[in-house]
Specification:
Blueprint lengths: L2 H12 L3 H16 L7 E3 L5 E3 H7 L11 H23 L4 E7 L2 H4 L18 H12 L3 E3 H8 L17 H19 L6 E3 L3 E2 L8 H5 L12 E2 L2 E3 L9 E6 L3 H7 L2 H4 L2 E6 L3 E3 L12 H7 L2 E7 L10 H10 L2 H17 L1 H13 L4 H15 L28 H11 L1 H14 L3 H15 L2
Parallel strand pairs: 3-4, 3-12, 9-10, 9-12
Antiparallel strand pairs: 1-2, 5-8, 6-7, 10-11
Helix pairs in contact: 4-6, 4-13, 14-16, 15-16, 17-19, 18-19
């Protein structure tokens, strides 16, 4: 009974000249009516395009994907802001700087072109971008609020901060934003970095991704009327500057920074953790699942959380919870918590059956699916598994962090372990034999060495 429906769908998708005819029809809709059937694009005034998530955030609808009410939203955001502050404070003890890069969005920057049939929410507490700045200020979270900055300067700059048919900040605006990010890092770290010397504005051929929404219209010819402006730039060659290491965790706004700006010449490395998941610009890792989180954080000089206002509801993508747990507790303690959750899953028949079904449908091992569920629960509410994290200033620390304190005796032993290939190989073998993590064995042996020599 499926043959007829399958053949009908196949015919719709594969008739002759299909792609050209669809584009021709879409062009007719756009030219005559400024209309599009794209489910992800809203057409505003004077041909300005807005992304669906940006629209839903502006009208106060997006919050309901994350909370039941403005009150519960504020509570959720407060929890996240508090976690970010705690991670910021812990990293500061080791000379590392964490900050939030609060990226703008098109609707808040250019509301005058917003679709007239859609009204902005009257409740400011229904929008995360209105809540977070007050939380960050009250808690002392390092924040570079580009959203507020763009709304302040849009009438005084001689170029568009957003392209007419793009959803991200324009490449030219991103260039100026990067210059300010460098200045902000200098202020946080008390260091001198390379400077971007930016030329006058000029019109040029549209560059990726300034036309990303335009491409979704699926039309035959260019649809934007306002020219896209760009600028040439150069880097200072001052030999006395620092090239810090930077880990950026966030959304797709980072692409505008990395596509056209030579970040490799500004930073010793810049790793991009896309929504705290896929890793880009790292020759060793491609996923955050594979990294040693503590090692990565201790190797960086700056860690930033960059989300546009429509993505702030998921700020840090659970990074703050993961970092807080692993900065404050040893691998052995974290593993014990995970195994406790897994045991609860195995003992709950209904839960276990649902995950078995999920594993089969996704063609994954049951153990992997159980592990993912356990990790999700741990990092969704880490304070319920580690109550000490509720303290304003958690006192516990992952003992591996002593490696990064130059005058710490145990830290010196741990560094010697890493720097001695034979010793490290023996420790790895011991960890495999005992079915524990390498960190657990290193900490145990370092304590033994320390006690023996006292």
């Amino acid at each position: 009974g499926e043959v007829q429906s399958d053949m009908e769908q196949y015919s719709k998708d594969n008739f002759g000249f299909r792609e050209g005819l669809i584009r021709l029809y879409n062009q007719y809709l756009w030219d005559c009516y400024r209309k599009s059937y794209s489910k992800t694009v809203y057409v505003g005034e004077e041909g300005w395009l807005y992304e669906k998530e940006i629209v839903e955030d502006y009208i106060g609808k997006r919050m309901y994907e994350f909370a039941e009410s403005p009150e519960s939203l504020k509570a959720k955001l407060t929890t996240e802001a508090v976690r970010v502050k705690k991670v910021q404070d812990i990293l500061a003890c080791y000379g590392k700087h964490l900050f939030v890069l609060m990226e703008p969005d098109k609707a808040r920057t250019y509301p005058e072109y917003f679709p007239k049939n859609l009204k902005k929410t009257d409740n400011p507490n229904a929008v995360a971008a209105n809540i977070y700045p007050h939380l960050f200020d009250s808690l002392g979270v390092n924040c570079m609020n580009v959203d507020a900055w763009f709304r302040q300067i849009k009438g005084s700059v001689d170029y568009a901060l957003y392209p007419q048919t793009g959803t991200h900040w324009s490449n030219l605006a991103a260039l100026h934003a990067m210059d300010s990010i460098i200045r902000y890092m200098e202020s946080l770290g008390g260091l001198k970095m390379k400077e971007l010397q930016i030329s006058d504005v000029k019109y040029d051929t549209t560059m990726t991704p300034d036309d990303d929404l335009e491409k979704l219209l699926n039309v035959n010819k260019r649809s934007h009327d306002i020219p896209n402006y760009y600028a040439d730039f150069a880097l200072t060659n001052d030999s006395n500057v620092m090239q810090p290491a930077w880990i950026h965790i966030g959304d797709s706004y980072y692409w505008n920074l990395s596509y056209h700006i030579p970040l490799d010449e500004i930073f010793s490395y810049h790793h991009y953790w896309y929504y705290n998941s896929s890793i880009f610009y790292d020759s060793e890792y491609t996923s955050t699942r594979d990294i040693n989180l503590i090692g990565q954080l201790m190797s960086a000089d700056f860690v930033s959380l960059g989300y546009c206002t429509a993505q702030l509801y998921g700020l840090s993508s659970r990074f703050s919870a993961q970092a807080l747990v692993n900065l404050c507790h040893n691998a052995e303690e974290v593993e014990a918590a995970i195994q406790g959750i897994e045991q609860n899953i195995y003992s709950n028949g209904q839960w276990k059956a649902s995950l078995e079904e999920k594993a089969e449908s996704e063609d994954r091992s049951f153990e992997d699916v159980v592990r993912d569920d356990a990790l999700y629960l741990l990092y969704s509410n880490p304070e319920s598994y580690f109550p000490d994290l509720l303290d304003e200033h958690p006192a516990s620390r992952n003992e591996m962090l002593s490696m990064f304190l130059p005058d710490n005796a145990m830290g010196q032993i741990l560094r010697n372990m890493y720097n001695n290939p034979e010793w490290l190989a023996a420790l790895k073998e011991k960890a495999e034999e005992q079915h524990v993590s390498l960190e657990t064995v290193m900490i145990r042996d370092a304590k033994w060495v320390l006690e023996t020599n006292q």
